[in-house]
Amino acid sequence: MHRSFKDRQRVILKDGTVLTIVKFLGSGGQGEVYEVATPQARLALKWYFVQTGTDKQKNTIKKLVSTGKPDERYLWPIALAEVHGKKSFGYLMPLRPPQFSNIVDLMKRRIEPSFDAVVTACIQLADSFHKLHEKALCYRDISFGNFFFHGRTGDILICDNDNVTHTAIQDAGVLGTPRFMAPEIVRGDIKPNIQSDLFSLSVLIFYMLMMHHPLEGKQEASIKCFDLPAMTKLYGEQPIFIFDPLNRSNRPLPGYHDNALAFWPIYTEKVRQTFIKTFTQGLRMPSVRPSEKIWRDILIDLKNSIVVCDCGMENFYDIDKLKQGVLNKCWACGSLLKPASRIKIENEVIVLNMGTKLYGHHLNKYEKYKFKHILAEVIPHPIQRDMMGLKNLSRQTWNIKTKTGKSYAIDFGKSFTIEDGTVVDFGETSGQIRKG
Amino acid sequence: MKMRPGGELATRPLEFIWLADCSISMKTSGKIDALNDAIRKSIPFMREVAYENPNAQVYVRAIKFSSGAAWHIESRTPVESFEWSDLVVDGVTDLGAALLMLKEALKVSEMSERALPPVVVLISDGQPTDDYKTALASLMEEPWAVKAVKIAIAIGKSANKRILKEFCGDNGIDVLSADNAETLVEYIKWVSTVVLQAASSPASQAEQANTMGINVSIPVIDDDDDLLETISVEDVW
After folding, report:
1. Chain A residues 266-285 with a CB less than 8 Å from chain B
2. Which residues 63-102 on chain A approach chain B with CB closer than 8 angstroms?
3. What total number of domains does chain A contain?
4. B54 vs A144: CB contact, 8 Å cut-off?
């Protein structure tokens, strides 16, 4: 229980790297984490306890270092850290920037991000897990503790990557974290794999969107003592989705599961149906669980559908509902949402609110799924402030054609008025504006 | 400003109860001072664990026992506002009286309708001076007592570890022996952080961990699956 290193201790690794221990950051089930300074950068050092610092773990770290990170969001092992005279070992990884919060902060409402930021985070999670799984790597231990979240932008970071191994490896050493494990893992039928990762990812996305667990309904409320046997029953032996359309026995109960009841109706039908598939058929048949790619596309649709009500609150515009002539009510003020301006770019429909941004994902076919570069933004007219315009923030000159047949060139920094029927040639892609 | 509906993630209460020996022998070698100091030092760590835990609302209480037993801190105090007041010594070691007082606290009628497994930490340096066996049997008639994570810390060499182990039951954790103030601080910190965390929001499960027959998996320490005949920790109720 004593710390392995002291603050300000100078440590020389076997490979000759000289570190200074800056401070102790925390400890978990496997080891301790320190902030360290090298001549080049500030990094994090994870140091295993003697009993968890096995040869197998060491080999995993070596492989991860040589494989390299799947994308920039992974705080991936950079180098193995061994010290002469110390029984255990560790590894170096990037340090979490201070502006990133824990997911627990989100769950405890200590940060209050917008829907846009939360959905962006979910898109990034799906995208990053797609990249991991593409390499046939399995994460195995998705839980609140393994991600960080930027409350304003929705950017995420993924840590604790030291259990990541090839999906076929059966003795990776970790089964997962209760509440996130797939039923077949909870029951002990099989070991974690990419399919069980997909289940855990869906649980995390459900938690982030609904602030609730997908299997905690009437069954959970009836359990007095919530311990491991109770969890095994609820999450492994008798899992029932709280919104299973065919089995209503585990519905969320008012007073106990208010978040589930408050959030579920807000999202689009596509999102609801994807959760229903994951947590009904997908509970028993891992092969039917929606892939990360499906999640990514559905969540991008969800982000595109954000509409700001006159009361100022974000809602989701259900295009499928609009086609039936129905629009949902604002969750905050209860008034019916008004038909919003929107632009259709290829197969995506993006609602245009004041402040809506179009990214590389929307306008550049070479930046699909990238939301880093803002290439357009909805801004108010300089005089008539309630009139919306789309500002060109890209290097590409746009060509627009209005409904009346007039054509204009829109250079970088210029804007045009958002009018029904206007067609925009963005260069790589084109779009058409609809109002009403 | 609230930008989304609803509230924070739903939590369940977790009762954390200290059961502290205040017999006169605890004065020897400054044991009571060490215990007061250790519990006081553990509070910030306990708060930190609770702060990082999305699934539990932690409440702390304390029972003291010497000649008889009494509540040292009776009200269920949220860990965020929990403060430790020093225990003072007198009398003998009426562990049985403390167990009966614990039984009253863990009665179904006294507990929240839905909760996480309670954590009870017994700290003693000696031999019980009353009929602890009958009291323990009576305590274990309470379902919440069966479900509770029961940990014992023996202070010094005179503590009867066999009896403390009887209190713990077969939870896979040996009685912790603290022979000096530093070790006591470490153990008190361990129970108020690692054990608290395990009881409320279990961490990542290791493949080799055997969780059969236990209701809370405490990291690193092996378990045993011996069950009680009447009420089982495996029961879901």
Report:
1. 266
2. 102
3. 3
4. yes
Spatial distance between the Cα atoms of B116 and B216, rounded to a whole number of angstroms = 10
Detail the DSSP E strand segments found in A262-347.
306-308, 314-316, 342-345
Condensed to tens digits (0 to 9), the pLDDT of residues B109-127 reads: 999 999 999 999 999 999 9
Provide the pLDDT for residue A197. Answer: 97
Chain B residue with Cα closest to A222: B237
Residue B65 corresponds to which tokens in the numbers above? 């026992």
Number of residues that make up chain A: 436
Do A57 and A115 lie in a common domain?
no
SS3 content of chain B, % helix, strand, coil (to 5): 35, 20, 45
- Number of Cβ within a 10 Å radius of residue B23: 25
Residue A367 within a domain: yes
Residues 93-112 of B with CB under 8 A from A: 108
As for the ipTM of the complex, it is 0.88
Beta carbons of A112 and B1 less than 8 Å apart: yes
Q: Which domain holds residue A389?
A: 340-434
Radius of gyration of chain A (CA): 24
Residue A344 belongs to domain with CATH number: 2.60.200.20
Instruction: Give the CATH number of the domain where residue A42 resides.
Output: 3.30.200.20
Residue B40: CB atoms within 10 A of its CB come to: 15
B52 touches chain A (CB under 8 A): yes
- List the beta strands (DSSP E) in chain B: 12-21, 56-66, 68-78, 119-124, 149-155, 176-178, 205-206
Question: Within an 8 Å CB–CB cutoff, is residue A24 touching chain B?
Answer: no
Q: Quote the CA–CA distance of A436 and B79 in Å, as a whole number.
A: 54
Q: Which of A2, A212, A228 sits opposite B214 (nearest CB)?
A: A228
A201 inside domain: yes
pLDDT single digits (tens) A93-139:
999 999 999 999 999 999 999 999 999 999 999 999 999 999 999 99
For A264-273, write each residue's pLDDT tens digit.
999 999 999 9
Residue A303 falls within a domain, yes or no?
Answer: no
Shared domain check, A272 and A219: yes
Q: What is the C-alpha to C-alpha distance for residues B36 and A374, in angstroms, rounded to an integer?
A: 58
CB atoms inside a 10 Å sphere around CB A180: 25
Q: In what order do the strands lie in the sheet with A430-434?
A: A348-351, A342-345, A430-434, A423-425, A398-401, A407-410
Question: Final residue of a domain: which of A281, A296, A311?
Answer: A296
Tokens of A51: 């009993």
Judge whether A258 is closer than 8 Å to chain B, CB to CB: yes
CB within 8 Å: B186 and A172: no
